Amino acid sequence: MKKQKNSLVKFLLYSSGFFFLGLGILGIFIPLLPTTPFLLLAASVFMHTNKKIYVWMFNNRWFGKQFRSYVKNKSVSRIVKISSLLVLWITISYSIFFVVENIWIRLVLVIVLVGVSIHILKLKTIDDEIQNFDSN
Predict the structure, then answer these.
(1) What is the pTM of this model?
(2) Number of structural domains, the chain?
(3) Domain encompassing residue 89
(4) Please, which residues have CB within 8 angstroms of residue 61's CB and are 6 or more apart in sequence?
(5) Of 43, 50, 104, 119, which residue is most buried, by most CB within 10 angstroms?
(6) What are the residues whose beta carbons fall under 8 Å from the beta carbon of 88, sequence distance 6 or more?
(7) Is the distance from CB of 25 to CB of 63 less than 8 angstroms?
(8) At what angle do helices 64-73 and 51-59 cross, to 10 degrees?
(9) pLDDT tens digits, residue range 103-119?
């Protein structure tokens, strides 16, 4: 029974890691879908489950720069900040006004919205040109 439970947990972790990785890759091509937050979620999963994929993400030629910038310097580009905040505010605001009816859940969503926004705004901003130039 315990082995079956471990297999299920491992499957769920791998699935969520690849799901977030896929969303992060889509974010490269879809302007309002943020790349970095999804890559960070995927990386946190793979850091504990599959070091090979984590290292691949860190050294990837398309999104490795953003990833390394955040991990090493806690910094993101201006466009990442703007797109992350836009997606965050649009999706959570939509949920607050059109989806959720319970006032307590709305309050939780507002708290999450403000907390994540503060976190994103506190990150160092790196110019897009510097991030593209810095491949280390």
Answers:
(1) 0.58
(2) 1
(3) 2-133
(4) none
(5) 43
(6) 113, 116, 117, 120
(7) yes
(8) 100
(9) 999 999 899 889 888 98
